[in-house]
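Quick one - first record:
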Amino acid sequence: MNDIQTIIRLAARGDGITADGRFVAGAAVGDEIHFEDGKPVIVPGPGHVVPVCRHVPECGGCQLQHITDQAYCAFVLDRLVRVLGPMMPADVAPVALSPPRSRRRIAIRAVRRGGQLLLGFNSESSHRIIDLQQCEVMLPELFALVAPLRALLHETLAEGQGAGLTLTASDTGIDLLVANIHAESLDEIQRLTDFARAHGLARLSVEGAQGVETVYEAQTPQLMMGGVRVSLPPAPFLQATVEGEAALVAAVTAATAGARVVADLFCGLGTFALPLSRAARVMAVDAAGPAVASLAGAARAAGRPLDTVHRDLFRRPLTPDELKPFDAVVFDPPRAGAEAQVKMLATSAVPRIIGVSCNPSTFGRDARRLADAGWAIEKLWPVAQFRWSSHVELVALFTRR
């Protein structure tokens, strides 16, 4: 018996949903689904395209490579509408979509098993590693290291041993952090040093039980942020793409225009604090000690009006009294959101609050608390820098109703 349905929207994780509520992986809005003996057969519609990567759909990095850019941007907006509901503002900027092969920071895994070295991303909803032969999201210079790293780790890892790798493309070269490998004997250190030198790495560090240790450093990895050169600690948090960062910074700059004193909470290396310090006095707060130290040194060297505070905002959020001096507050928390800090912001006298989020679900929770306290989202900037994934980011300007 044939059962024919049409995909009417995409779920939060990218699966197609039929009118009767069934989920179909790999489907796009407008696809016709023939259920034959309960199994879906996809007849592609106008929003469906052939994925450009051979690893789709096994690789968990690109759930939505099978849909057009227009359909992808529609998914991003629909995701925000469904999370925010009546809080969604009328003023919404176009989706800022990062191009293919633009990811400048990636985390991949390796394991040696059965005499083979597998290196790549996890498969969807699994710990199985997809051995990368192609990648359409990471920068070409990062992907060029995949094959050499596979050879290096084949010699380095024992049977059954795994390792994690974080690669970051900086202005001064690639920074590589490898977790769970030994770098104690002269032979082990020499092998890693030879690899780093042969492939022109800026820095190679290893992470073990004693923490992170730099094995090789030809140049300190650095990035320009707001016209200031910032030195990067190993495996720093960065916005995923240059284009995505530019879109987020432009939105935050627009939302804080005219503010003379600004707080940047969960500031990291200064993605927003440094650009904002061109026109305002900035207090930048974060619990990540190495990032705060790098930001403080960079701001001091550049003579920027920027003060740093090393503080855990989850345990010790800024209170309404502490927030009084600021014309605007920017908060950019991890995926868990900023529940404790938002409670303080909600009852503060700050004229403007700018939320930056990489998780619409926790942002929705924090936005509802602000809405309940009399705040409204005046403008929203959606950003899709994790191209083809279900990962959605945004900037939102809150003002008092």
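second record:
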Amino acid sequence: MSSQPTSIRIHQFAGLQPGPRFLVTGAVHGNEIHGTRAMTEIIRQLDAGELTLKRGTLTCVPIVNPLANQLNRREGDRNLNRNLRPPVIAQDFEDRVARVLCPLIAQHDGILDLHSFQGNGPAFAMIGPRNNSGELEPFSQEATESALAAALGVTRIVEGWLSTYALGIARRQQRSHDGSRRASLISDPHYGVGTTEYMRSTGGWAITLECGQHLDAGGPEVARLAILRALVFLGMLDESAVQAHQPAQPPEVLQLYDVIDREDMGDSFEQAWASFDAIARGQKIGTRANGEAVLAPSEGRIVFPNVKSLPGTEWFYLARPSDRKL
């Protein structure tokens, strides 16, 4: 068995003119490598002079979680994209990554975090909350996130992540657990905080781009074009660096409003759901191990249905149309 990685590779291009400090990350979940492949190509293009950075600083971290990537799975010891904060005492590999990652995030103005997902479905972007001064996720960069997400070339944008997580955590806290570290982590109010939430907590803007299913052959190109479009949007590359084509219709905007956990490995879906499949109120989504039907509480969409989720973790999300204007 190979030893655990002891470093993270960080690539940085510092423009000679001042400008935005832009961070791009991939393989935060080790088996989600569309962003890794996209960054490899963009780094090559910059090195070869095929792309020219006009201003600002571009930092690329193609493999944020090298242990999970080495194992070709989502996690090393735990989910790096949950409970992300600098640890007081490192208890696992992801804590050691966080010691490096959190200060790196804080040094930048914004982040594009590139992911993929288990089920089938099209690429989409996830953005933060509306501007607010509340306790959960105070924020003042709504306009930047909305405009940048609309420029990335995806046809769907989703909001409402952390508020939905808070609802799920409140339910978990009402259930008894075995006292393990895993059980403590998934019932921690901080559990919903990952790369983008941490960036927003430092005052920056952040977008998660889900580039398609894990094995989608088109995923790396979705990621590559999104990085280029973001750089053009930020004035860091000339517009000629990327094709101007955009979807004919403005992106659909959806609001996450609930998350349903798996309770038992015997819980099963009614059908092979894909992200954003339409569901009707009262439609049967799945069946619990005890035979109880899991029904849709209202009309909307199913998001991130995960047949591989573990008991006590997210099984699927629910979304409905948002009134947010981009």
